[in-house]
Structures are given as structure tokens and as C-alpha cells.
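User
New here, explain this?
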Amino acid sequence: MDDVMLEGGKSTSKSIASDVYIGVKSWYKKLDPTGDKLEGYREGINHALNKVQIMGMDSHKQISDIYIALRVHSNMRKLSSDKPADKYIYDKDNPESSLLLDNENAFDIDGSLRSLGYGHIPESLKRLGKSSEAKSVEDLSINDGLTNHVYHGKEAFSFVDGEEKVLVLGQPGCGKTTFLKSLALAYSHVFKPDVELGFLIPIFVRLRDFYIDGVGSSDLFLKFILEAVSELSSVSFIDNWMQQKIEKGQCVFLIDGVDELSDEQSKNVLNCFRKFVNKYHKNKFVVTCRTSAYEHGLEGFKICEVDDFNDKDLGAFISQWFGDQVKTRKTLANDLKTSLIARDLCKTPLLATMICLMYQYNKRIPNNRFELYESCLDALMYRWDSFRSIDRSRKITSISDNAKKAILAKVARTTFDDDKLYVRKNYLLSLLSKEIDRLSLKISSSELLYDYESNMGILVETDVNLYTFSHLTFHEYFTALHYLELRNENQIIDKALGGHKYKEVLLLIMEKTLDADRLGLILIGRIKSEVISTGLSNSYVEGLIQDVLRSSVLFDKRVRAALHEVYSELMSLPDPFDVYDDDFL
């Protein structure tokens, strides 16, 4: 049992201090004297979690190094998304919300700003350029109550190990799931993190796999946990044995993807999870969620956020990607140094992957995220099959790439609007068939699905006959593409103000459209009439304006200046929690 227990690490007994090594052996023997449970479970964890498929690379990579840093926050409220109680609805009788909608082809920016009350904007703000923008927005939020302590690499393991409950926030594709997987591997001693961790049994689950109809209980969530453990183990687990370990507080629960719950399921699933946490509070809990999707849903969790790639992280990533292609590595590094926009794009592993994938084929760095996603997907349409050693003769060539994009955009928007991130194969085939028939194309829905999945890697089968986009970012990109194609940009303002789900879609649309000024002015009017007029701050809307200003949207300098003033006004408003606290006292 001793050799099997530590087989994941090379020269483990030499690299880990002897007292830790002995402690691990003693702990495993105490938990599982016969060695017939944990051995099979560790093997299952290693097989299922010790790999990551990096888009554009020809094989899975083992999780052996961590390119992640955690920034710890002390103020929960400043990171929470105060989604409005009543969803914003467009009101045609409201002069601010109807502004510009009646005359889409031409409008007077100065006149529109005057009607909104921003005709007084000083020249100093109007001269504010994009290069100074990040600093300006940052200056406005200096007193946001956040600590700046950052834990890099193995320090992030130590930080998590020292906390009882941790909520890990982050951008799309920043490495939240990979971090949870690495924690599972570290706690099971599949690989050595070079830091001393507590002796806990790791349990990794994706929250989206938990489905309930109505109000759930802690027992129902426990059943879900035990089923997940059994699926990972190569030997039969005795549920009572694992339940005893949970009751004694000998486990660390790694819960992935709070933001991936549908609106329909979110409330019931989170209530059920909270009951489970309260009942089995002796255990450790680590939960991940998109930053923009976090609301006041998990009390008592220490909040941290995955930090952006620094220069060292990005350099290491590029070196691993291009390997011995020294010339390409150097030219990309030089191009990144001279392009502030490109460096700003390389904040996460996903975005860095797209930069590398795109640069490998056209040696060009995009100007914004929309162009980056567009270039990357173009590359995937031509190159994914070769990456995966797929016979190019099987590629479907009877329809154009533009037609494939149009169909995928329609599917993306239909499923995104219906809150369906995962769809059954039959339903997906029916959506494809409908578009194929509408466009009178000579191809079957099965052939087209094969092309999207096997040749491009844009759609993936996550379970038997259950499909999703290979990353939520692609789902958002194609949804934005459809809104743009049908000129439905106005609708997205309403949806983005109604909640975090459509925020990324709005940003993509604004970066792509030639009509960004009109959308920016509509957004200003809506925020003034629906938020500023209430006299109370809204951290979700503050974050939305921050993201708009930090993006690569091409605004007229007058519109950009007005957005800055709107942000200043929002930041000056009192926190609704403080107002309610005062009323209570």
C-alpha cells in the first residue's frame, strides 16, 4: 500500500520532508487499513483530473505546474453583483431610455449628451485617451476596501489549506477549474505541491451536474457527492465509509462552477448546497465562480480572485506553447511589448492560448477580444483537425465557413437565451436541421455536428448525448455574432442591465459594432434613469461601466468622457446596505 499510495510523485520520499511523508502514510493507513478504498479512488482522481486539453495543442497535458495566483479580498460587498430586484425593461415613454432609438442612422452626440445632463463635461475629461483610461478608472475606485495581497503558485495552496471555506472568483478561462483539479491532485498526493497540506480526502464535483426539482436537502446533496466519488473510484466504494469521513470533517470539497447553473436551478441548488455546508461544516470547502456572476449567495466564505497573468506567467506559457520555435517565441514577445492592447488581452490562459494559436498561423496580434475570438475560431476551422490528427478527407466541405458560422450563431443565441448551456444531442440536431433546411443546404445535421465537434473542436460531448460549447466564451461570442447580424444590439442593453449573464455578450458587441457611440449613450441614459435616480449605488452596474471603459470599444471621446462621469456619480452614491443598516439602527 505504501508504494501505491505515493506513486504519483517522483522521488516523493526525498522531496517531501520525512515527517510529512511518514504522516501521509500513517494517515492513509488510519483511514483505510485494508487499502481497498483510497487506492482505487486515487487512481480515479489521477485518471480523470490529471489532464487538461489546451486548445491548439495536439494532446492532453498533465497538471504539473500551476500558473495561477490568488488575490485575497477583505470586502465581500465590493465584489458582489447587486443585481436589480426588478429587471430593467425598456420604456418607450421614458425620454432617457428611448433616446436615439427613433433615429438609428444619425444622431447628434452633443445634443444627446445635453439632453442627458452631460453637456457640461470639462475638456480635461474629453481629452482623456484610452492609454490613460485604466489608471483613471482605477483612481476612481481607490477606496474599494480590497487588500492587495497576492499568493503565487504553491503559496496559493498554502492559503487555501489555511482557510475553512474559500470562494475563488475569476474571469472566463483564467484557470479556476484547473486550480481545483490541481488541489484534488495535491490533497490525494498524486503530485507534490512542495508545501505541507492538511490530511484531507479531496472530492471534486461540477455543480452543474447536480439537478433537483424543487427544494432540496443536505441529504440530497450528500447523495450527489457519494455518487460522484463512486464514479471516480476504480473499486466499489461503500457509501457508509465515505459518509463517516464526511461527518468527521476529513474531506475537502472542491465545487466547480457556481456561475454555470441555470437561472431556473440556481436558487434551489445553492440553497441545497448551503444546507450541506452548514451540516458538514467540519470539512473544508473551495468553490469557484465567475467574478461577474457572484452575488450574495455564499455567506462565510473567504473571497479571493484569480489574478491576471503577469509577465513571468505569460513568458512561461508562451515558452511551453512554442517549445523549440525560438524565432516565433521571440517575435511574439517583442510584438507583445509594443502592443498595450495585446498585453491587456493576455490576462488569462484562455486568452493567451488564443493569442498563441492565432499568432502561429498569421503572425498578427488582434486589436480587441472580438477580433481575437474571430481569428482564433477561423484558425480552428482550418487547423483543429490537423491538431488532433484527424483525416482531412473526412472534413465536410459542402458548405462555406460563413454558413457554418451563421448556423452556429443561431444555435448559440437560441440556447443562450433559453439558458441552456448543455443540450441533448437530439435537440441540438433539430436546431441544426432547422437552419440547414432554412438555408437549403445539402448536408445532414449529423455531418454538420461531426464537423463542429471533431474537425473544429467548437462543440464537445461532455456526457453521453450531452453537448456544449468547448468554452462558455465561444457560446457568448456566437451569441453576440447573432445579435449583430440581426441588428438586435438595443436588446442586449436591456439584458446586460438585467444581470451578469449578458455582460460579456454586450462587451463583445460593443467592440465589434460601428455603432458603439449610440449604444454607449443608450447605456448612459438607462443607468441615469434606473440607477442614479434612485440615489443608491449598485455594484453590478459599477462593474459593468468599469468593464466597458477598460475594454477596447472605440468610443467618441465625448461619449467616453460621459461614461467616466457616470462612473464617478455611481461611486459617489451610498451603499444600499449602509442605508438599510442606518434605518435599522
User: Anything to note?
Assistant: The longest helix spans residues 369-387. The domain at 2-74+148-306 is CATH 3.40.50.300 (Rossmann fold).
